[in-house]
Every structure is written in structure tokens, then in C-alpha cells.
Write a sequence for this structure.
């Protein structure tokens, strides 16, 4: 039987963008941001406006040096036994990120083949059985079943099946096999 | 009414890979290849094996300097009036190509937004109403209606609706609106 497919977002789901932004804000702007204080805020509210965030996201090596979210590696390896896993990342807005994301995946997730990597803009034409993402804008137009991965900015959204971490994601998907 | 969507392949459909490979083979290997002699051959048969082709595809600036296929620019502009156009290119196999493809599109197709660009591996999870591609391996698994764009390597394939150039593609899609 054909395996069911899962599209897995990178930023905020495999890669801890939140932690990395906090590190960069401290280092580059001397601004201390506490995780517990930004729950439920938008990215722009949490990180002092669009311009500051974009300047960090556009800086060389930001995407290459992102920390991996807890249990993401082991969980994807496990899920790969029963699902066809695709990494689907909105990346074309930040051209510098393209190669960095490929290198980052090769380092941390070498078991994901190039055939299963999608670097895109809008995710509206992606058709998989599941989408694990932290952004409502992607989950809203998802063709398959949307699964919301908890992030500071979606803390107050209640429209989706939520998983707070990778252990919960694996448990939810185990039910689906 | 929501516009119908078209996924448009890059290599062999917007970008003349065939002509560029011929140029590189003459320049780098002193090998002359004539378009009329490679009709119906596979890429490997036409271009002296997998290794030679890959060495060219992996060379810096190959994808950045590809010539644009006749009428592609005007045709996509025209089609954009009635369709949602996505550029969907298998690119993750050649990481060097990622940025070059984005830059190439920005130069020749500046009216295509980053939201509508997909750099992927397998195209099996792409769901659009139409796919214009030169490779049977992509057209075979297409969720929408496949349209085969003529290339030397598909000259003998007869399983798909074929267009020989962009004028024919526009004519076919005009019928679909």
C-alpha cells in the first residue's frame, strides 16, 4: 500500500527560529526577549517590527546555524518508516536561505533525500495527506489534514489539531497509520 | 471565480537547456552535437553519458546563463491574465542551481512573484490544474492535466497532449479558460 504523505515545515517545526531570533536580537541589537513574554504575539510584535526581523532573516548563516527543535530528528526517522516525508519550506522570499536550508537539512536530516525537499513560496499547491506547520496561513489552505505545531505566535489560535512538540506529533500520527 | 492554476517547468520549457548543453559540450569538451541528430535519444545517450552531463549541470553559472526559450516571456505574461502561474522546477538535486534559478527568473520573468516559485525534487505532491513539462517522469504523476512540451528526449513519446512551442501552449490553454 502506498504510504500516506506528510509535508513538514522547517522554520518553527524542525528549526528553532524563535530561539535563534532571540539569540540574534541579544547579540546584534542588545535587546533581551523572553520566550514567556512573547506568547500569543505576532512575529512583528514580538521582535520589534518587520524591518528588524527581516534584517536578521536576511543575514548570512542565520538559516544555516539554526538549532534543531527537540526530538525532531528521531521523530522524522521514526515517521519515515510509515509515511512518505516531504520537507516543505517557504524559502523563496529569502534567496540566501535556499542553499543554507539544503546544507542544514543535509547536516541534521541526512536521511531526507533531495527528491523529498520542496523550497517554495506559497504552500497552496502542495498536496499531501498531512501538513505539520506553525503558520495558520499555511494550515488554512492545506489540502490534507492540518496539524499545528505550537509556536509563540500561534499560542492563541484554536482552530487546528495542535501538537506542542515532536513526541505529541508522533503520537497523533501513530493513530493515523 | 478562482483562476485555474498552471505549474510550468523551467528546464526545457522556459530555459533552453538543450542549446546550452550543446554550447558547453563544444566549448568544454570540443564535442559537436547537432540538434537534429539527438531527437528521440535520452539525455545520457545524446550527451555522452551521465557523468559528462552532470559535470556540466554542476558547473557554476550554467543555470544562471541559460537562454530563454522562444516566446516564453510573452506567453507567461499573457497566460497570467487568466491563470495562476507557478514555476515548478526540480532543483534540489543541484544545490548550486537554486540561487541561479531565482536570479534567472528575476531577470527574465520579473512578473513572477516569490510566492509562485517552487524549487523541488519530485513533483508528485504538486497539485495544479495543469502541468507543462518536458519529462514523462513528471507528467506521469501529475495530479492535473499534463501537457508535454516538446524536447529532443521526448520526441518519440506519444502518451500526452503535446505542444511544440509556446504559441501552441497558449492556444491550447486559451481553449481551457
Amino acid at each position: 500500500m502506498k504510504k500516506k504523505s506528510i509535508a513538514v515545515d522547517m522554520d518553527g517545526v524542525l528549526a528553532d527560529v524563535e530561539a535563534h531570533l532571540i539569540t540574534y536580537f541579544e547579540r546584534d541589537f542588545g535587546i533581551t526577549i523572553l520566550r514567556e513574554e512573547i506568547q500569543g504575539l505576532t512575529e512583528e510584535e514580538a521582535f520589534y517590527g518587520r524591518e528588524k526581523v527581516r534584517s536578521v532573516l536576511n543575514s548570512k548563516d542565520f538559516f544555516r546555524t539554526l538549532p534543531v527543535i527537540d526530538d525532531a530528528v528521531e521523530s522524522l526517522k521514526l515517521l519515515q518508516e510509515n509515511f512518505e516525508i516531504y520537507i516543505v519550506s517557504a524559502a523563496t522570499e529569502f534567496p540566501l536561505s535556499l542553499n543554507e536550508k539544503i546544507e542544514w537539512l543535509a547536516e541534521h536530516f541526512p536521511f531526507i533525500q533531495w527528491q523529498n525537499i520542496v523550497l517554495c513560496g506559497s504552500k497552496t499547491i502542495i498536496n499531501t495527506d498531512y501538513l505539520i506547520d506553525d503558520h495558520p496561513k499555511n494550515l488554512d489552505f492545506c489540502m490534507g489534514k492540518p496539524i499545528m505545531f505550537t509556536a509563540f505566535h500561534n499560542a492563541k489560535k484554536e482552530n487546528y489539531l495542535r501538537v506542542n512538540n515532536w513526541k505529541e506529533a508522533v503520537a497523533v500520527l501513530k493513530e493515523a497509520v
The first strand of chain A starts at residue 4 and ends at 8. The two ends of chain A are 11 Å apart (CA to CA). The longest helix of chain A spans residues 95-108.
